[in-house]
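Onboarding guide, step 5: your first structure request.
Type a short instruction followed by the sequence, for example:

Predict the 3D structure of this protein.
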Amino acid sequence: VDNDRRDLDMNSKDVDAEKMTRFIRMNELRLVTEYNPVTAIGVMQSSLQLHLLLITDKMSPKHPEQMHRYRAAAELFKGKIFFILVDSNLKSNERIVSFFKLKKSQLPALAIFHAPDEEQDVLTLDEVSVERVQDFCNRFLQ
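The system replies with structure tokens like these:
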């Protein structure tokens, strides 16, 4: 995951198939996956049913700092929510922006989507912060 090694303590007596499966599931994905035509199928077939999309302009000078904070928030929800980056500059991503009824002038924005029932919510942002992402996710989960 993102060039960071995670180890499961196999010397522990309470490691069973369920705990091993959970460890693998939680660590098989990047903290943030960029949505594009290559990753689209994997995103749709993810075992995680809750997707949080950061829809933003990757060319923005604020992008590196936004991603740093978004990854930090993703760490808090690892195994619960699939964090996805959507570059609003890609023509192929225009459908996603319009699906959430957003305009370019409203970006960056967070969009959360529950796949089974298609429930969703959107939050426009002036700045991406760990606290804002965490609050948004917690409100949706409740």
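Each response can be followed by summary notes, for example: The longest helix spans residues 63-76.
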